[in-house]
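Record type: ASSEMBLY
Status: queued
Input:
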Amino acid sequence: MNRREFVFSGGALVVAFTWRRPAAAQAPTEAAPAGRTLATDEVDAFLAIGADGRVTIYSGKVDLGQGLRVAIPQMAAEELGCGVERIAFVEGDTALTPDQGPTAGSTGIMRGGVQIRQAAATAREALLDLAAARLARPRAELALVDGEVRATGGASLGIGELVGGRRLGVKLDPKAPLTNPARFRVIGKPLPRPDVAAKVAGTHRFVHDVVVAGMLHGAVVRPPAVGAKLVEVDEASVAAIGGVRVVRIRDFLGVVAAAEWDAMRAARALKARWSDGTGLVGDAGVRAWMKKGPPVDETLVKRGDAAAALAGAAKRIAAEYYWPMHSHASLGPSCAIADIREGEATIWSASQATHRFRGTIARLLGLARENVRVIYVDGAGCYGMNGHDDAAADAALLSRAVGKPVRVQWTREDELGWDPKGPPQLLALEGAVDDDGRIAAWRTRMWIPRATANLPSMPLLGPQAAGIEQVPGLSTGLISQNGNPPYAVANQEVVVHWLADAPLRPSNLRAPGKIANGFAVESFTDELAAVARQDALAFRLAGLGDPRGIEVVKRAAALIDWQARPSPGPGGVGRGIAYLHYKNNETYVAIAMEAEVDRRSGAIRVRRVGCAHDCGLVINPDGVRAQIEGSILQTLSRALFEEVKFDRARVTSVDFASYPLLRFPDVPRIAIDLVLRQHAPPLGAGEAAATPVAAALANAVYDAAGIRLRDVPFTRERVRAAFG
Amino acid sequence: MARITLTVNDRERALDVRDPGEPLLFVLRNQLGLTGAKYGCGVGQCGACTVLVDGEAVRSCLVPAGSAAGRAVTTVEHLGTAERPGPLQRAFIEQQAAQCGYCVPGMVMSAAALLRRNPRPTGDEVKRALDGNLCRCGTHQRIIDAVLLAAGTR
Ligand code: FES
Ligand code: FES
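Status: finished
Output:
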């Protein structure tokens, strides 16, 4: 049951499941086809050609809803001279796919797809060599088309016949020639994704829907306070439900039952006594806590002499920006199934990093890595490290305790309460404009938790409660990037005040750190433009040297019919713009936005959004558009509504009333202008468009109403308070 | 153990539930194998579990299975299949209106209920009808467009 294949056939989309024997037959070593290599320098690790001439791509990167399931086959198909309908796609299963690293940081296409494309190009060369020998024709007279090698003059040989079922046995050649973009047939086409039809029909299989033979249902009872110890459990409190087994491993407390509903209500009914927690700072105290540190300082950027230039400047301003903690808030609470027995583990998980998680599970359970198999199955949208791995560890602990496969379904309360959070960020900015209205000096100081170097995996909740040793540390992603202005500033400095801890367990969440940094830097750029009494667009263009940056800024402005004038405007509808060069070396993106503010209620209404986006080579333009739309709406949600609330004991925003998300009536019209650079390398599209959103919004609000919002979320209360 | 009889997708199904208060959602998913409806919050705040009961969109996580007896329950599976999608589903596919897709069955059912009572909704009416359905991936614009496309008002 471990292989899911998506078969493309003409216009119709067919989803085929290869549903092999469950559980017992799943000894990880047996299920992997004999002799298959997973070494990333071997073409056979990525690609197999069947006797029927069909191609299977094995991808370590997974489709989290972002469309790799069609985009990577497009890249391979281009090099193999066929269409995607010939290609099946197997992803994330640690027994079948090579380790291409986590599906994170917009690397799915940029690294994963690029590697597979190179493997496909190498395979094409190998097929042509083989065919030249078999057909006794010069290589130059052969071409690979639609699954056959064709010779000029007629002779042809199907690839199934040529190598069907056998290994190619060639090393991945990093120099194998790639198709000239002028001749692309598959790359650049907005092909439909193969999984959408089943998702719409309700038959797509999510990890939540997986049933393993003999599977029981588990739920974990978390303490009422973070760090609390379990004092006593009253097993009799769930006796009435019947058939419930209580599992206690030190402070880890769970229940296992035959039915999901029984496990859920038992977890709710189970009475337990806990000690006090270790004490949290509470959401209102985060800012002061961050300022207090004590931090370890690091200078990230130093050009000219920012301190002297600031000291000597006539027009100088300073401002502080705050980004709170956010939940991933995936729409389906985390879920996983684990089958732990006889020294072997099989995990069905929506982890963004199955290969890494394999090592984690092996360490936690004291198993050899070879005896652990993690099978990727889609989860609800994952935008970083959410609760998936925690839920899988919970399932593993429960399965080991009861000797049966166990499915763990977190509740909404578990998810919002205990998923690892996007870390808080505090930025203090100082800047000055000179008499010509240019930015003369700039200083960014940021207070952020420091990610632990070489942390093998984020510490997981279940094992921690169970007293299983884990490497302690923080996981955040690269959150210090893009703290510099993307404009020519002769005197600039970016300093980070690293904090050794975080108020709640952090993890990487979409475009880690860059959303908050972009919010601060691009809001402050607008503040400087206002000091200089300049149009925000002209002010940016005056400082921008990179032609690709200039192009997206101009195109984004055009999408909302930008009218040049200084801000604030005359009232009514305001407009704002923001620009980012993602990580300073990847995608270029600019967002322009129109918003209105209702003074009385404090409500902000976003009317329309224009985004110009240059991510280099575009594999599937419709997929890129979907990612941009998603990045914009998700970040609007975060900027307008979201903040994790917690008191001294625990997270208190544990439902969608206390942790509200953007709703349909809040949705603006979005226009997207994709800059196509098919001759350039691909740069990634899953995150960049999220980064200018909050600044463009704050700038539009300033233009509309003359109030400057520097604390996220822009709640109605905050807006009303800003009016004074 | 209580025996209840449900009419699901035009078929009568008799089943045993250990707790008559068990939400319809879990009975559909775990006993009838209809996993289109999804668990998102369990408290009526997200819409992922939406099904039709007597033609109205309801949150199946809030409906005790016992109380659905004698009423017509329609799930997303009844509207079509991946190979033969119904017209509303076809519009969703046409618009590629799914990222992770976890919210989508609930969206389709809320939209189906809207189109039953208002076959030609405006964009604002679609937004209002889907107000109780959350999407974390930000697929909203495509979902709105899909519903309008199905209604012929796009
Ligand atoms: S699961 Fe029913 S509304 Fe969320
Ligand atoms: S598509 Fe993922 S939640 Fe809507």
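Annotation: Helices of chain B lie at 24-31, 87-94, 104-117, 123-129, 140-151.
Annotation: Chain B has two domains: 2-77, 79-151.
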